[in-house]
Structures are given as C-alpha cells and as structure tokens.
Amino acid sequence: MRLLKISNIVNLLIISLLPSISLAQSSSPSLTIRTISGLSSATIYANGNMQAKLLVSYKNIPQDYTVEKLSIREAYTNNPLPSSWENSSIDNGYDSDISGYRSAEKNKTVQNSTSQIFYLSTRNSDNNITLCAELVASNANGNRETLTTCNGDVNSGLVYLNVVPEINYGIEDLDQVTSREWYENDSYAIAQERFTLKNNREIRGVGGCDTKHENNGKRYLISSTNGPEHPYSGNRKYGAAYLFEPVRGVVSTSFPYFGITVNLITFREEFVEKETETLKFNTTNSITFAWLNGQDNLHTYINPLINIEIHCPLVTFVDNYGNNGIINISRHSNPNDKWGKVYYRFH
Minimal CA–CA distance to 117: which of 52, 65, 73, 66? Predict the structure, then answer.
C-alpha cells in the first residue's frame, strides 16, 4: 500500500484510474477532518465519558473505486490512534467541546455516504494529540490506493485535541434551594431540595440508589424511617425522601402515606393508604429531592414501607460533559421533638 499526499494523488487517480475522463472535466479527490462543529480543534475532559466528535469527509473518489476504510491516525507519524484513546462509532450524548461552541454543535453536519463521524474519549489528562485522516480505496482490478492528510500540508486536514483533567464535584460545587410546607392541618410536611451546579452546567444524570421503591417514572423512594418514640408522649417520628429523575422539566407528583380516615358507612376510623397533595418539582438541569415528615399523634405515617426502613447514603450525578459528582445524605431527628420530624442533611 502506498501512502500518498493529497497534493500528489491527483495524477494517480485522474490519469491512472480515470483514463477516460479528461483533466478539464474532473475534480481532484479530497479528504478532510474537522470537529462536528467544523473547527480545527476541541478541548475535552479526561473523564472517559466526554467524546471529541470528529467528521471525516471525502469527495471525488473515482466511481470504479470502492472506499474500504476511513480511519483517524496520529498526524505526521501516521501511527494508529494510541491505545490511551477509545474510538467509538456511538454518540453517548455528552457535549463534545468545552471551548464554548455548543451552539455550533446544534447545527452540526450529519453523517452521510461520503463521511463518517468518530467519537474519541480518554482518561489520560496528558493526552493532547494532533489527528489526521486516512482513506483506503480499491477497484475490481485489485488496485488499492491510500489517501491521507497526515503530512499536514492539506487544508482542513488536521485536528488538535486539547485534554484537560476531569472535574469531581462535591456539595461545595452546588447551589441549594430549599422550601418546606405543612399540609392537611399540619399532619405532614413536604420539603423540596433542589441542587444546581454553580458553573451553570447541566445535570444529565443521577444514580447511586435503588430505584425499585415507589417509582412512578418521575421519582423513587431512597430513604424511609420510623423514628424513636418521644420519651413523654410516645409519639414516633416518620420520614421519607425521594429522588427525581433529571432533565424532565417541571413535573407534578404526589406521595403515598398511611393515615386514619372515617368510613362513611360504618362511621368507624380505618387505617388506609392515601396520597399527599400534588406538587410541582423543577428537575431541569438539577438534582431534585423531596423529603417528607409525618406525625404519629395525628396518625400520619409518611413512610410508605410501614415498618421497613431503607436509606441511600450517597447520590451520584454527572454533568453535560461527563464529569461525575456525589452528594452524601444523612438523616437525623431530635428525641425531644414531639412533632415527628425526621430531617435530611445533604453534605
């Protein structure tokens, strides 16, 4: 196989491969590589999630030649992509450049029959690299030719990737907004805790907890408890915490609890499952929690699992560039608090 400069391949492809087409009627074969936003460079995080999205395109390959392979290589050396880089054909959905070109990416060129998109990621922060493209084509006569931009003398033939260390977020990187109200004659309270990143980036995903309890597709139970008895009144403290799925906008939901109601036929009190008030929760680009308090003396048992206690101590999240973060959750109660409050602390 011969490695040919774009500038030197014209005669080969036009004269050797296309003897029936005159030079005046033909256009030169071309091969280009650019970011999905049409740029010659991009900056990504070394978190293994964020992908540099590169578009390799070609034109004017003779009709009797079939493109066998498009590949990305290391510029000037023509070596294959180093093993510290992962090359995928699948877009994982994270933004592809932290240099401020997200608006350009929204208008990106889509892949077609004469182009291919490559998705590159790495976990090595010392992995800056200049990349080039290579095309291999062959015809029915067994001729096999290579078109390359790796010598660096072709317009739109190189892309530079700048790799910076990943970010690991903690509670100190988040803004917190809290609200709390009592409902049904102060028999239960619902608090909203909403966390957003201080750098105005998006929250793309949350996890770390079992999702099987009280999951209605919008939120799921991550903690529930029956607190200790008050030393004088004997009342217990009940609490529950829910985590919302992110990137769902403003959602409306209620929460199950158990309470006493009067049967209108027998006029007797019965222990039944109820639903709280329906409230709106903003999950846009955020980690959103609801935590509930119930009061034993008002027969409000806000723990939907009754006598079963669960607690997820750690919630994970990821931003729009694939950087990860954690929120620790602890719960506490005051034994002298007769109003049945179980508090959740985020740290």
Answer: 52
Contact in structure between 74 and 129 (CB atoms under 8 Å): yes
Residue 149: CB atoms within 10 Å = 26
Cα separation, 260 vs 300, whole angstroms: 7
Q: Which two tokens stand for residue 261?
A: 């109601």
Bridge partner residues of 259 (DSSP): 272, 300
Radius of gyration of the chain, Cα coordinates, nearest whole angstrom: 30
- Residue 224, classed as helix, strand or coil, is strand
Nearest residue to 292 via CA among 190, 183, 179, 182: 190
Looking at per-residue pLDDT, the higher value among 50 and 7 belongs to 50
Residue 291 three-state SS: strand
Residue given tokens 């509930």 in the structure block: 292
Alpha-helical regions (H) of 98-253? 102-106
Confidence tier at 86 by pLDDT (50, 70, 90): very high
Q: Which residues of 160-185 are buried (b: 16+ CB within 10 A; e: fewer)?
A: ebebeebbebeeebbeeeeeeeeeee
Strands 324-332, 168-169: pairing is parallel
Beta strands (DSSP E) in 165-202 are 168-169, 174-183, 188-197
Is the pLDDT at 65 greater than 90? The verdict is: yes
pLDDT for 193-234, tens place per residue? 999 999 989 999 999 999 999 999 999 999 998 766 666 766
Please tell me the predicted confidence (pLDDT) of residue 9.
41
Q: Enter the pTM of the model.
A: 0.83
- The pLDDT of residue 250 is above 60: yes
Distance CA 211, CA 309 (A): 15
